[in-house]
Fold each of these.
Amino acid sequence: MKVELFNDHFQNYKRYQIAKAQLVIADIPYNIGKNAYGSNPKWYVDGDNKNGESELAGSEFFDTDKDFRPAEFMHFCSKMMKKEPKARGQAPAMIVFCSFEQQFPLIELARRYGINNYINLVFRKNFSAQVLKANMRIVGNCEYGLLLYRDKLPKFNNKGKMVMNCIEYGRKEKDTETIHPTQKPVELLKKLIELFTDPGDVVIDPVAGSGSTLVAAAELKRSAFGFEIKKDFHRKAKGWIDSVMLREKEIDLYGFPKSQLQAKHPTLF
Protein backbone atom coordinates (compact mmCIF):
# COMPACT_ATOMS: atom_id res chain seq x y z
CA MET A 1 0.00 0.00 0.00
CA LYS A 2 1.37 3.40 -1.00
CA VAL A 3 -0.16 6.76 -0.06
CA GLU A 4 1.36 9.98 -1.35
CA LEU A 5 0.28 13.61 -1.56
CA PHE A 6 2.06 15.85 -4.08
CA ASN A 7 2.40 19.61 -3.65
CA ASP A 8 1.68 20.16 -7.32
CA HIS A 9 -1.08 20.65 -9.87
CA PHE A 10 -2.68 17.48 -11.22
CA GLN A 11 -1.75 18.62 -14.73
CA ASN A 12 1.83 17.61 -13.90
CA TYR A 13 0.88 14.02 -13.12
CA LYS A 14 3.20 12.47 -15.74
CA ARG A 15 6.35 13.30 -13.81
CA TYR A 16 5.21 11.16 -10.86
CA GLN A 17 4.42 7.95 -12.76
CA ILE A 18 1.55 6.98 -10.46
CA ALA A 19 -0.59 3.91 -10.95
CA LYS A 20 -3.96 4.09 -12.72
CA ALA A 21 -7.01 4.42 -10.50
CA GLN A 22 -9.94 2.14 -9.83
CA LEU A 23 -11.65 5.19 -8.36
CA VAL A 24 -11.09 8.93 -8.81
CA ILE A 25 -12.68 11.13 -6.13
CA ALA A 26 -12.72 14.90 -6.50
CA ASP A 27 -14.38 17.77 -4.68
CA ILE A 28 -14.00 20.38 -7.39
CA PRO A 29 -14.26 24.17 -6.85
CA TYR A 30 -17.86 25.34 -6.94
CA ASN A 31 -16.76 28.74 -8.31
CA ILE A 32 -19.04 30.72 -6.03
CA GLY A 33 -16.51 33.55 -5.75
CA LYS A 34 -16.95 36.09 -2.98
CA ASN A 35 -20.05 34.36 -1.64
CA ALA A 36 -17.99 31.32 -0.62
CA TYR A 37 -18.81 31.71 3.07
CA GLY A 38 -22.46 32.53 2.40
CA SER A 39 -23.56 29.13 3.73
CA ASN A 40 -20.90 28.93 6.42
CA PRO A 41 -21.15 30.22 10.02
CA LYS A 42 -17.69 31.80 9.61
CA TRP A 43 -19.39 34.66 7.72
CA TYR A 44 -20.19 35.99 11.21
CA VAL A 45 -17.92 36.63 14.19
CA ASP A 46 -17.84 33.41 16.26
CA GLY A 47 -20.48 31.99 13.91
CA ASP A 48 -23.28 34.11 15.42
CA ASN A 49 -25.09 36.67 13.26
CA LYS A 50 -25.74 38.76 16.39
CA ASN A 51 -21.99 39.56 16.43
CA GLY A 52 -21.88 41.03 12.95
CA GLU A 53 -19.88 40.03 9.92
CA SER A 54 -16.39 38.56 10.25
CA GLU A 55 -13.33 39.30 8.12
CA LEU A 56 -14.35 36.36 5.91
CA ALA A 57 -17.66 37.93 4.88
CA GLY A 58 -17.72 38.66 1.18
CA SER A 59 -14.54 36.71 0.49
CA GLU A 60 -13.67 33.64 -1.53
CA PHE A 61 -12.23 30.37 -0.21
CA PHE A 62 -9.05 30.43 -2.30
CA ASP A 63 -7.47 32.40 -5.10
CA THR A 64 -6.98 29.24 -7.15
CA ASP A 65 -10.69 28.57 -7.73
CA LYS A 66 -10.81 30.92 -10.70
CA ASP A 67 -7.92 29.00 -12.29
CA PHE A 68 -9.73 25.65 -12.24
CA ARG A 69 -10.30 24.39 -15.79
CA PRO A 70 -12.95 21.66 -15.98
CA ALA A 71 -11.78 20.34 -19.38
CA GLU A 72 -8.22 19.82 -18.12
CA PHE A 73 -9.60 18.15 -15.01
CA MET A 74 -11.76 15.75 -17.05
CA HIS A 75 -8.85 14.98 -19.38
CA PHE A 76 -6.73 14.05 -16.36
CA CYS A 77 -9.47 11.79 -14.98
CA SER A 78 -9.98 10.03 -18.30
CA LYS A 79 -6.23 9.33 -18.53
CA MET A 80 -5.80 8.18 -14.93
CA MET A 81 -8.80 5.84 -14.68
CA LYS A 82 -7.93 2.22 -15.41
CA LYS A 83 -8.85 0.90 -18.82
CA GLU A 84 -12.13 -0.94 -19.19
CA PRO A 85 -11.50 -4.59 -18.25
CA LYS A 86 -13.02 -7.51 -20.12
CA ALA A 87 -14.47 -8.94 -16.93
CA ARG A 88 -17.81 -7.64 -15.71
CA GLY A 89 -18.02 -5.81 -12.40
CA GLN A 90 -14.43 -4.55 -12.43
CA ALA A 91 -14.69 -1.28 -14.35
CA PRO A 92 -13.33 1.95 -12.80
CA ALA A 93 -15.37 5.02 -11.92
CA MET A 94 -15.08 8.56 -10.69
CA ILE A 95 -17.06 10.50 -8.09
CA VAL A 96 -17.25 14.29 -8.36
CA PHE A 97 -18.69 16.44 -5.58
CA CYS A 98 -20.12 19.54 -7.25
CA SER A 99 -22.80 22.19 -7.03
CA PHE A 100 -26.28 21.41 -8.36
CA GLU A 101 -25.73 23.69 -11.37
CA GLN A 102 -22.39 22.08 -12.25
CA GLN A 103 -23.85 18.60 -12.75
CA PHE A 104 -25.17 19.12 -16.24
CA PRO A 105 -22.09 20.75 -17.80
CA LEU A 106 -19.92 18.05 -16.17
CA ILE A 107 -22.06 15.27 -17.65
CA GLU A 108 -21.64 16.74 -21.14
CA LEU A 109 -17.93 17.35 -20.61
CA ALA A 110 -17.36 13.79 -19.40
CA ARG A 111 -18.92 12.44 -22.61
CA ARG A 112 -16.35 14.36 -24.65
CA TYR A 113 -13.68 12.26 -22.93
CA GLY A 114 -15.41 8.91 -23.34
CA ILE A 115 -16.98 8.82 -19.87
CA ASN A 116 -20.46 8.27 -21.19
CA ASN A 117 -22.61 7.34 -18.21
CA TYR A 118 -23.61 8.91 -14.93
CA ILE A 119 -25.69 8.47 -11.80
CA ASN A 120 -26.72 11.55 -9.81
CA LEU A 121 -25.75 11.49 -6.15
CA VAL A 122 -27.23 13.43 -3.25
CA PHE A 123 -25.46 13.62 0.11
CA ARG A 124 -27.95 14.35 2.89
CA LYS A 125 -26.83 16.19 6.01
CA ASN A 126 -28.68 16.24 9.32
CA PHE A 127 -27.85 19.94 9.65
CA SER A 128 -27.87 23.10 7.53
CA ALA A 129 -25.13 25.72 7.51
CA GLN A 130 -27.09 28.30 5.52
CA VAL A 131 -26.76 30.94 8.21
CA LEU A 132 -27.32 33.82 5.82
CA LYS A 133 -30.65 32.39 4.76
CA ALA A 134 -32.00 31.78 8.25
CA ASN A 135 -35.31 33.44 7.38
CA MET A 136 -35.98 31.08 4.51
CA ARG A 137 -38.77 28.56 4.93
CA ILE A 138 -36.60 25.92 3.27
CA VAL A 139 -32.85 25.71 3.87
CA GLY A 140 -30.40 23.46 2.07
CA ASN A 141 -29.04 20.40 3.83
CA CYS A 142 -27.74 18.50 0.81
CA GLU A 143 -24.64 18.38 -1.30
CA TYR A 144 -24.58 17.00 -4.81
CA GLY A 145 -22.32 14.81 -6.86
CA LEU A 146 -21.99 12.52 -9.85
CA LEU A 147 -20.86 8.96 -10.27
CA LEU A 148 -19.30 8.87 -13.74
CA TYR A 149 -18.20 5.79 -15.68
CA ARG A 150 -17.40 4.85 -19.27
CA ASP A 151 -19.55 2.00 -20.58
CA LYS A 152 -19.49 -0.97 -18.23
CA LEU A 153 -21.01 -0.60 -14.78
CA PRO A 154 -18.25 0.00 -12.24
CA LYS A 155 -17.23 -2.35 -9.48
CA PHE A 156 -19.94 -2.42 -6.80
CA ASN A 157 -19.16 -4.05 -3.45
CA ASN A 158 -22.77 -3.89 -2.36
CA LYS A 159 -23.14 -7.60 -1.41
CA GLY A 160 -26.20 -7.92 -3.60
CA LYS A 161 -28.03 -5.05 -1.91
CA MET A 162 -29.43 -1.94 -3.59
CA VAL A 163 -27.40 1.24 -3.32
CA MET A 164 -29.53 4.34 -2.93
CA ASN A 165 -28.32 7.50 -4.64
CA CYS A 166 -29.22 9.56 -1.57
CA ILE A 167 -26.39 8.94 0.88
CA GLU A 168 -26.06 10.12 4.47
CA TYR A 169 -23.33 12.78 4.67
CA GLY A 170 -22.50 12.45 8.37
CA ARG A 171 -20.52 14.93 10.43
CA LYS A 172 -16.84 15.65 10.64
CA GLU A 173 -15.15 13.53 13.28
CA LYS A 174 -14.84 15.43 16.59
CA ASP A 175 -11.12 14.75 17.04
CA THR A 176 -10.25 15.74 13.46
CA GLU A 177 -8.75 19.14 12.70
CA THR A 178 -10.54 21.24 10.08
CA ILE A 179 -7.79 21.82 7.51
CA HIS A 180 -9.89 22.88 4.55
CA PRO A 181 -13.19 24.84 4.37
CA THR A 182 -14.88 22.19 2.19
CA GLN A 183 -13.43 19.17 4.03
CA LYS A 184 -15.51 16.00 3.67
CA PRO A 185 -16.04 13.54 6.56
CA VAL A 186 -13.64 10.60 6.46
CA GLU A 187 -16.47 8.15 7.18
CA LEU A 188 -18.39 9.34 4.11
CA LEU A 189 -15.31 8.91 1.93
CA LYS A 190 -14.63 5.47 3.41
CA LYS A 191 -18.18 4.44 2.57
CA LEU A 192 -17.67 5.45 -1.08
CA ILE A 193 -14.21 3.91 -1.34
CA GLU A 194 -15.39 0.61 0.14
CA LEU A 195 -18.30 0.52 -2.30
CA PHE A 196 -16.26 1.04 -5.48
CA THR A 197 -12.86 -0.52 -4.70
CA ASP A 198 -11.17 -3.53 -3.13
CA PRO A 199 -8.18 -3.54 -0.77
CA GLY A 200 -5.05 -2.91 -2.82
CA ASP A 201 -6.88 -0.86 -5.47
CA VAL A 202 -5.74 2.67 -6.28
CA VAL A 203 -7.68 5.83 -5.39
CA ILE A 204 -6.71 9.24 -6.83
CA ASP A 205 -7.83 12.69 -5.67
CA PRO A 206 -6.75 15.42 -8.15
CA VAL A 207 -7.75 18.29 -5.80
CA ALA A 208 -6.95 16.77 -2.43
CA GLY A 209 -7.46 19.76 -0.13
CA SER A 210 -7.36 18.46 3.45
CA GLY A 211 -6.19 15.01 2.34
CA SER A 212 -9.27 13.32 3.82
CA THR A 213 -9.67 11.09 0.74
CA LEU A 214 -6.14 9.77 1.20
CA VAL A 215 -6.72 9.27 4.94
CA ALA A 216 -9.87 7.27 4.21
CA ALA A 217 -8.06 5.17 1.60
CA ALA A 218 -5.14 4.48 3.96
CA GLU A 219 -7.47 3.30 6.70
CA LEU A 220 -9.03 0.88 4.19
CA LYS A 221 -5.69 -0.45 2.90
CA ARG A 222 -6.01 1.16 -0.52
CA SER A 223 -3.16 2.88 -2.27
CA ALA A 224 -3.90 6.55 -2.81
CA PHE A 225 -2.38 9.52 -4.59
CA GLY A 226 -3.41 13.16 -4.37
CA PHE A 227 -2.47 16.59 -5.66
CA GLU A 228 -2.78 19.83 -3.69
CA ILE A 229 -1.30 23.02 -5.11
CA LYS A 230 -1.68 25.24 -2.02
CA LYS A 231 1.38 24.89 0.21
CA ASP A 232 -0.38 25.44 3.53
CA PHE A 233 -3.10 22.90 2.80
CA HIS A 234 -0.49 20.45 1.56
CA ARG A 235 1.64 20.82 4.70
CA LYS A 236 -1.26 20.26 7.09
CA ALA A 237 -2.76 17.45 4.99
CA LYS A 238 0.57 15.65 4.76
CA GLY A 239 0.97 15.86 8.53
CA TRP A 240 -2.45 14.27 8.99
CA ILE A 241 -1.78 11.55 6.41
CA ASP A 242 1.62 10.73 7.92
CA SER A 243 0.10 10.37 11.40
CA VAL A 244 -2.59 8.03 10.06
CA MET A 245 -0.02 5.96 8.15
CA LEU A 246 2.07 5.61 11.33
CA ARG A 247 -1.01 4.57 13.29
CA GLU A 248 -1.98 1.97 10.70
CA LYS A 249 1.57 0.61 10.62
CA GLU A 250 1.70 0.31 14.41
CA ILE A 251 -1.68 -1.42 14.53
CA ASP A 252 -0.37 -3.97 12.02
CA LEU A 253 2.85 -4.45 14.05
CA TYR A 254 1.61 -4.32 17.64
CA GLY A 255 -2.15 -4.60 17.43
CA PHE A 256 -2.58 -1.06 18.82
CA PRO A 257 -1.50 2.53 17.93
CA LYS A 258 1.61 2.69 20.13
CA SER A 259 2.57 6.33 19.45
CA GLN A 260 -0.91 7.66 20.18
CA LEU A 261 -1.11 5.77 23.45
CA GLN A 262 2.39 6.95 24.43
CA ALA A 263 1.33 10.56 23.85
CA LYS A 264 -1.83 10.18 25.95
CA HIS A 265 -0.41 7.91 28.66
CA PRO A 266 3.38 8.36 28.84
CA THR A 267 3.61 6.59 32.22
CA LEU A 268 2.40 3.33 30.67
CA PHE A 269 5.54 2.98 28.52
Amino acid sequence: MSTDVDKLWELQEVLSQLAEVDREMSVKPESFAVVDREFQDVNAEMTRITESLEDIAKERRRVDGELTDQQELLKKYQGTLMQVKNQQQYAAAWKEIDMTRKHVKELEDSVLKSMGDTDGLQKQLDDNRAGFDDLKSRHDAAYAEWQASLGDQRKRAEDLKKRAAMIEAGIPDRLRAEFHKVFRQRQGLAVARVNNDTCGGCRSRVRPALYQQLKRGELVRCESCSRILYLEKTAS
Protein backbone atom coordinates (compact mmCIF):
# COMPACT_ATOMS: atom_id res chain seq x y z
CA MET A 1 0.00 0.00 0.00
CA SER A 2 1.37 3.43 -0.93
CA THR A 3 2.18 5.79 1.91
CA ASP A 4 1.65 9.54 1.72
CA VAL A 5 5.36 9.95 1.05
CA ASP A 6 5.11 7.53 -1.87
CA LYS A 7 2.22 9.57 -3.26
CA LEU A 8 4.20 12.78 -2.86
CA TRP A 9 7.14 11.24 -4.70
CA GLU A 10 4.85 10.06 -7.50
CA LEU A 11 3.32 13.55 -7.70
CA GLN A 12 6.81 15.06 -7.87
CA GLU A 13 7.74 12.72 -10.72
CA VAL A 14 4.59 13.55 -12.67
CA LEU A 15 5.03 17.31 -12.19
CA SER A 16 8.67 17.04 -13.26
CA GLN A 17 7.61 15.24 -16.45
CA LEU A 18 4.96 17.89 -17.04
CA ALA A 19 7.53 20.67 -16.63
CA GLU A 20 9.79 18.96 -19.18
CA VAL A 21 6.92 18.63 -21.68
CA ASP A 22 6.05 22.30 -21.19
CA ARG A 23 9.71 23.21 -21.73
CA GLU A 24 9.86 21.15 -24.92
CA MET A 25 6.69 22.79 -26.22
CA SER A 26 8.13 26.25 -25.56
CA VAL A 27 11.31 25.60 -27.58
CA LYS A 28 10.86 27.06 -31.04
CA PRO A 29 11.91 24.80 -33.94
CA GLU A 30 14.58 26.37 -36.13
CA SER A 31 12.16 26.54 -39.08
CA PHE A 32 9.98 28.90 -37.05
CA ALA A 33 12.74 30.54 -34.99
CA VAL A 34 14.44 31.98 -38.12
CA VAL A 35 11.34 33.70 -39.48
CA ASP A 36 10.26 34.68 -35.96
CA ARG A 37 13.55 36.49 -35.33
CA GLU A 38 13.18 38.34 -38.61
CA PHE A 39 9.55 39.19 -37.82
CA GLN A 40 10.37 40.43 -34.32
CA ASP A 41 13.33 42.50 -35.59
CA VAL A 42 11.30 44.18 -38.33
CA ASN A 43 8.36 44.76 -36.01
CA ALA A 44 10.65 46.28 -33.37
CA GLU A 45 12.30 48.50 -35.99
CA MET A 46 8.92 49.71 -37.25
CA THR A 47 7.86 50.48 -33.70
CA ARG A 48 11.09 52.40 -33.09
CA ILE A 49 10.67 54.42 -36.28
CA THR A 50 7.01 55.17 -35.52
CA GLU A 51 7.90 56.38 -32.03
CA SER A 52 10.71 58.53 -33.47
CA LEU A 53 8.30 60.08 -35.97
CA GLU A 54 5.87 60.84 -33.15
CA ASP A 55 8.64 62.45 -31.10
CA ILE A 56 9.74 64.57 -34.08
CA ALA A 57 6.16 65.61 -34.79
CA LYS A 58 5.67 66.62 -31.16
CA GLU A 59 8.87 68.67 -31.18
CA ARG A 60 7.90 70.17 -34.56
CA ARG A 61 4.60 71.39 -33.12
CA ARG A 62 6.45 73.00 -30.23
CA VAL A 63 8.98 74.68 -32.55
CA ASP A 64 6.23 75.87 -34.93
CA GLY A 65 4.43 77.47 -32.01
CA GLU A 66 7.60 79.15 -30.76
CA LEU A 67 8.50 80.26 -34.30
CA THR A 68 5.10 81.92 -34.70
CA ASP A 69 5.59 83.73 -31.38
CA GLN A 70 9.07 84.91 -32.36
CA GLN A 71 7.91 86.11 -35.78
CA GLU A 72 5.18 88.14 -34.12
CA LEU A 73 7.72 89.51 -31.66
CA LEU A 74 10.02 90.48 -34.52
CA LYS A 75 7.20 92.42 -36.18
CA LYS A 76 6.58 94.19 -32.89
CA TYR A 77 10.25 95.19 -32.54
CA GLN A 78 10.37 96.35 -36.15
CA GLY A 79 7.32 98.50 -35.50
CA THR A 80 8.93 99.91 -32.37
CA LEU A 81 12.00 100.87 -34.42
CA MET A 82 9.93 103.47 -36.28
CA GLN A 83 8.90 105.10 -33.03
CA VAL A 84 12.30 105.55 -31.32
CA LYS A 85 13.24 109.08 -30.38
CA ASN A 86 17.01 108.86 -29.83
CA GLN A 87 20.10 106.93 -30.77
CA GLN A 88 20.13 104.93 -27.53
CA GLN A 89 16.58 103.66 -28.09
CA TYR A 90 17.42 102.96 -31.73
CA ALA A 91 20.43 100.83 -30.74
CA ALA A 92 18.40 98.94 -28.13
CA ALA A 93 15.65 98.23 -30.65
CA TRP A 94 18.14 96.94 -33.23
CA LYS A 95 19.71 94.69 -30.59
CA GLU A 96 16.32 93.12 -29.84
CA ILE A 97 15.60 92.74 -33.56
CA ASP A 98 18.98 91.14 -34.21
CA MET A 99 18.59 88.63 -31.34
CA THR A 100 15.06 87.77 -32.41
CA ARG A 101 16.10 87.28 -36.04
CA LYS A 102 18.84 84.89 -34.94
CA HIS A 103 16.36 82.96 -32.85
CA VAL A 104 13.90 82.83 -35.76
CA LYS A 105 16.68 81.54 -38.02
CA GLU A 106 17.55 78.82 -35.49
CA LEU A 107 13.91 77.79 -35.28
CA GLU A 108 13.55 77.75 -39.08
CA ASP A 109 16.69 75.60 -39.36
CA SER A 110 15.21 73.25 -36.76
CA VAL A 111 12.01 72.98 -38.81
CA LEU A 112 13.99 72.18 -41.96
CA LYS A 113 16.02 69.54 -40.11
CA SER A 114 12.87 67.92 -38.67
CA MET A 115 11.38 67.81 -42.18
CA GLY A 116 14.51 66.05 -43.48
CA ASP A 117 14.54 63.64 -40.54
CA THR A 118 10.86 62.91 -41.04
CA ASP A 119 11.32 62.18 -44.74
CA GLY A 120 14.22 59.82 -44.01
CA LEU A 121 12.39 57.94 -41.28
CA GLN A 122 9.18 57.77 -43.30
CA LYS A 123 11.10 56.19 -46.19
CA GLN A 124 12.54 53.58 -43.81
CA LEU A 125 9.06 52.87 -42.46
CA ASP A 126 7.58 52.57 -45.95
CA ASP A 127 10.39 50.20 -46.99
CA ASN A 128 9.73 47.99 -43.97
CA ARG A 129 5.98 48.04 -44.56
CA ALA A 130 6.42 47.07 -48.20
CA GLY A 131 7.54 43.56 -47.30
CA PHE A 132 5.86 43.25 -43.91
CA ASP A 133 2.63 41.61 -45.08
CA ASP A 134 4.58 38.84 -46.81
CA LEU A 135 6.81 38.42 -43.76
CA LYS A 136 3.79 38.24 -41.44
CA SER A 137 2.17 35.62 -43.67
CA ARG A 138 5.34 33.49 -43.56
CA HIS A 139 5.56 34.01 -39.80
CA ASP A 140 1.93 33.02 -39.19
CA ALA A 141 2.23 29.96 -41.42
CA ALA A 142 5.42 28.79 -39.67
CA TYR A 143 3.79 29.37 -36.29
CA ALA A 144 0.68 27.41 -37.28
CA GLU A 145 2.85 24.53 -38.53
CA TRP A 146 4.77 24.49 -35.23
CA GLN A 147 1.58 24.51 -33.16
CA ALA A 148 0.11 21.69 -35.25
CA SER A 149 3.22 19.61 -34.55
CA LEU A 150 2.61 19.90 -30.79
CA GLY A 151 -0.52 17.76 -30.84
CA ASP A 152 1.08 14.67 -29.26
CA GLN A 153 2.88 16.71 -26.62
CA ARG A 154 -0.30 18.59 -25.73
CA LYS A 155 -2.10 15.28 -25.24
CA ARG A 156 0.75 14.04 -23.07
CA ALA A 157 0.60 17.25 -21.03
CA GLU A 158 -3.15 16.85 -20.52
CA ASP A 159 -2.69 13.22 -19.47
CA LEU A 160 -0.01 14.23 -16.96
CA LYS A 161 -2.24 16.96 -15.53
CA LYS A 162 -5.07 14.45 -15.06
CA ARG A 163 -2.71 11.98 -13.42
CA ALA A 164 -1.37 14.68 -11.09
CA ALA A 165 -4.93 15.62 -10.10
CA MET A 166 -5.75 11.97 -9.33
CA ILE A 167 -2.66 11.62 -7.15
CA GLU A 168 -3.38 14.87 -5.32
CA ALA A 169 -6.93 13.71 -4.61
CA GLY A 170 -5.46 10.92 -2.47
CA ILE A 171 -3.17 13.21 -0.43
CA PRO A 172 -4.41 14.92 2.76
CA ASP A 173 -5.11 18.64 2.29
CA ARG A 174 -2.49 19.78 4.81
CA LEU A 175 0.22 17.65 3.25
CA ARG A 176 -0.76 18.70 -0.26
CA ALA A 177 -0.53 22.38 0.73
CA GLU A 178 2.86 21.76 2.34
CA PHE A 179 4.10 20.03 -0.81
CA HIS A 180 3.11 22.92 -3.08
CA LYS A 181 4.65 25.47 -0.73
CA VAL A 182 8.02 23.70 -0.89
CA PHE A 183 7.53 23.10 -4.63
CA ARG A 184 7.29 26.87 -5.20
CA GLN A 185 10.14 27.71 -2.84
CA ARG A 186 12.55 25.09 -4.24
CA GLN A 187 12.20 25.66 -7.98
CA GLY A 188 9.88 22.76 -8.67
CA LEU A 189 11.60 20.13 -6.51
CA ALA A 190 9.62 19.52 -3.32
CA VAL A 191 10.54 15.86 -2.82
CA ALA A 192 14.15 14.70 -2.95
CA ARG A 193 15.32 11.12 -3.19
CA VAL A 194 17.84 9.99 -0.59
CA ASN A 195 20.90 8.33 -2.12
CA ASN A 196 23.77 7.04 0.03
CA ASP A 197 22.41 8.85 3.08
CA THR A 198 22.41 12.13 1.13
CA CYS A 199 19.57 14.50 0.17
CA GLY A 200 19.21 14.50 -3.61
CA GLY A 201 18.11 18.13 -3.53
CA CYS A 202 20.94 19.86 -1.68
CA ARG A 203 23.52 17.05 -1.20
CA SER A 204 23.43 17.37 2.58
CA ARG A 205 23.96 14.30 4.75
CA VAL A 206 20.88 12.79 6.39
CA ARG A 207 21.40 12.01 10.07
CA PRO A 208 21.05 8.32 11.06
CA ALA A 209 18.03 9.06 13.26
CA LEU A 210 16.19 10.68 10.35
CA TYR A 211 17.26 7.86 8.07
CA GLN A 212 15.60 5.37 10.42
CA GLN A 213 12.41 7.43 10.35
CA LEU A 214 12.51 7.29 6.57
CA LYS A 215 12.88 3.52 6.64
CA ARG A 216 9.75 3.36 8.79
CA GLY A 217 7.85 5.35 6.15
CA GLU A 218 7.55 8.53 8.21
CA LEU A 219 7.45 12.01 6.70
CA VAL A 220 10.89 13.59 7.06
CA ARG A 221 12.13 16.99 5.92
CA CYS A 222 15.73 17.70 5.00
CA GLU A 223 17.29 19.73 7.79
CA SER A 224 19.23 21.79 5.25
CA CYS A 225 16.84 22.59 2.38
CA SER A 226 13.47 21.65 3.96
CA ARG A 227 12.55 19.38 1.08
CA ILE A 228 10.49 16.29 1.80
CA LEU A 229 12.79 13.27 1.73
CA TYR A 230 11.99 10.07 -0.11
CA LEU A 231 13.71 6.74 0.45
CA GLU A 232 13.10 4.20 -2.27
CA LYS A 233 12.02 0.86 -0.88
CA THR A 234 14.35 -2.05 -1.50
CA ALA A 235 13.02 -5.36 -2.68
CA SER A 236 12.69 -7.78 0.22
Amino acid sequence: MESKWSRCEAPAANSLGVALRNGGETASVLGMIGVNNALRVLGVNNIDIEAPLKGVLLLIRNQDVPGVIGRVGTLLGQHKINIANFALGRLQDSTEAIGIVNVDHKVPPEVLAELRAIQAVRQARVVEIR
Protein backbone atom coordinates (compact mmCIF):
# COMPACT_ATOMS: atom_id res chain seq x y z
CA MET A 1 0.00 0.00 0.00
CA GLU A 2 1.47 3.34 -1.02
CA SER A 3 0.91 5.98 1.63
CA LYS A 4 0.19 9.63 0.93
CA TRP A 5 2.69 10.26 3.75
CA SER A 6 5.26 7.75 2.51
CA ARG A 7 7.75 10.51 1.75
CA CYS A 8 7.10 12.05 5.19
CA GLU A 9 5.61 15.19 3.67
CA ALA A 10 3.52 16.68 6.46
CA PRO A 11 0.86 19.25 5.55
CA ALA A 12 1.73 21.87 8.18
CA ALA A 13 4.79 23.22 9.99
CA ASN A 14 3.72 21.73 13.32
CA SER A 15 3.02 18.26 11.88
CA LEU A 16 5.19 15.26 11.11
CA GLY A 17 4.54 12.29 8.84
CA VAL A 18 6.35 9.00 9.38
CA ALA A 19 6.20 5.95 7.14
CA LEU A 20 7.77 2.54 7.73
CA ARG A 21 8.30 -0.14 5.12
CA ASN A 22 8.83 -3.78 5.92
CA GLY A 23 9.09 -5.88 2.81
CA GLY A 24 6.06 -5.02 0.71
CA GLU A 25 4.08 -3.54 3.58
CA THR A 26 3.95 0.19 4.43
CA ALA A 27 2.54 1.79 7.58
CA SER A 28 2.24 5.53 8.01
CA VAL A 29 1.23 7.95 10.74
CA LEU A 30 0.68 11.69 10.67
CA GLY A 31 0.83 13.68 13.90
CA MET A 32 1.10 17.21 15.19
CA ILE A 33 1.85 19.37 18.18
CA GLY A 34 -1.36 21.11 19.17
CA VAL A 35 -2.55 23.54 21.81
CA ASN A 36 -0.41 23.56 24.98
CA ASN A 37 2.15 21.34 23.18
CA ALA A 38 -0.27 18.40 23.24
CA LEU A 39 0.71 15.62 20.82
CA ARG A 40 -2.08 14.42 18.49
CA VAL A 41 -2.48 11.75 15.85
CA LEU A 42 -4.07 13.11 12.66
CA GLY A 43 -4.00 10.04 10.45
CA VAL A 44 -3.01 6.40 10.18
CA ASN A 45 -2.46 4.56 6.88
CA ASN A 46 -4.20 7.22 4.80
CA ILE A 47 -7.20 7.32 7.14
CA ASP A 48 -7.98 10.69 8.70
CA ILE A 49 -8.43 10.27 12.45
CA GLU A 50 -7.67 12.63 15.33
CA ALA A 51 -6.76 11.45 18.83
CA PRO A 52 -4.47 12.36 21.73
CA LEU A 53 -1.04 10.77 21.45
CA LYS A 54 -0.42 9.95 25.10
CA GLY A 55 -0.84 7.19 27.64
CA VAL A 56 -2.21 3.80 26.66
CA LEU A 57 -3.69 3.58 23.17
CA LEU A 58 -5.61 0.68 21.73
CA LEU A 59 -5.31 0.66 17.92
CA ILE A 60 -8.02 -1.29 16.15
CA ARG A 61 -8.28 -1.94 12.40
CA ASN A 62 -11.68 -3.30 11.48
CA GLN A 63 -14.36 -3.67 8.86
CA ASP A 64 -16.67 -0.66 8.91
CA VAL A 65 -19.84 -2.48 9.91
CA PRO A 66 -22.51 -1.74 12.53
CA GLY A 67 -21.87 -2.87 16.10
CA VAL A 68 -18.07 -2.79 16.31
CA ILE A 69 -17.88 0.31 18.53
CA GLY A 70 -20.53 -1.10 20.87
CA ARG A 71 -18.80 -4.48 21.17
CA VAL A 72 -15.40 -2.87 21.85
CA GLY A 73 -16.87 -0.52 24.48
CA THR A 74 -18.85 -3.29 26.17
CA LEU A 75 -15.86 -5.63 26.28
CA LEU A 76 -13.60 -2.96 27.80
CA GLY A 77 -16.32 -2.06 30.33
CA GLN A 78 -16.74 -5.70 31.36
CA HIS A 79 -13.03 -5.74 32.19
CA LYS A 80 -13.24 -2.42 34.09
CA ILE A 81 -11.08 -0.61 31.51
CA ASN A 82 -12.19 3.01 31.27
CA ILE A 83 -12.22 4.76 27.89
CA ALA A 84 -10.73 8.27 28.02
CA ASN A 85 -11.17 8.98 24.28
CA PHE A 86 -12.54 7.01 21.33
CA ALA A 87 -11.67 8.26 17.83
CA LEU A 88 -12.77 6.70 14.55
CA GLY A 89 -11.84 7.09 10.94
CA ARG A 90 -12.45 5.24 7.70
CA LEU A 91 -11.30 5.24 4.13
CA GLN A 92 -13.69 6.96 1.72
CA ASP A 93 -15.70 4.44 -0.31
CA SER A 94 -14.20 1.53 1.61
CA THR A 95 -15.09 -0.90 4.37
CA GLU A 96 -11.79 -0.36 6.21
CA ALA A 97 -11.87 1.62 9.45
CA ILE A 98 -9.46 2.47 12.25
CA GLY A 99 -10.21 3.17 15.89
CA ILE A 100 -7.85 4.74 18.40
CA VAL A 101 -9.05 4.18 21.95
CA ASN A 102 -7.23 6.01 24.75
CA VAL A 103 -7.74 4.02 27.96
CA ASP A 104 -6.87 4.76 31.57
CA HIS A 105 -5.11 1.45 32.28
CA LYS A 106 -3.08 -1.22 30.53
CA VAL A 107 -4.99 -3.70 28.40
CA PRO A 108 -4.18 -7.26 29.54
CA PRO A 109 -3.26 -9.82 26.85
CA GLU A 110 -6.45 -11.81 27.45
CA VAL A 111 -8.59 -8.71 26.77
CA LEU A 112 -6.60 -8.00 23.61
CA ALA A 113 -7.28 -11.61 22.53
CA GLU A 114 -11.02 -11.09 23.12
CA LEU A 115 -10.94 -7.91 21.02
CA ARG A 116 -9.17 -9.76 18.21
CA ALA A 117 -11.88 -12.45 18.36
CA ILE A 118 -14.57 -9.94 17.35
CA GLN A 119 -15.45 -11.00 13.81
CA ALA A 120 -15.06 -7.53 12.21
CA VAL A 121 -11.72 -6.78 13.94
CA ARG A 122 -8.71 -7.32 11.66
CA GLN A 123 -5.99 -6.11 14.06
CA ALA A 124 -5.84 -4.92 17.66
CA ARG A 125 -2.65 -3.59 19.22
CA VAL A 126 -1.69 -1.70 22.34
CA VAL A 127 0.77 1.20 22.23
CA GLU A 128 2.03 3.00 25.32
CA ILE A 129 3.28 6.58 24.96
CA ARG A 130 5.25 7.92 27.89
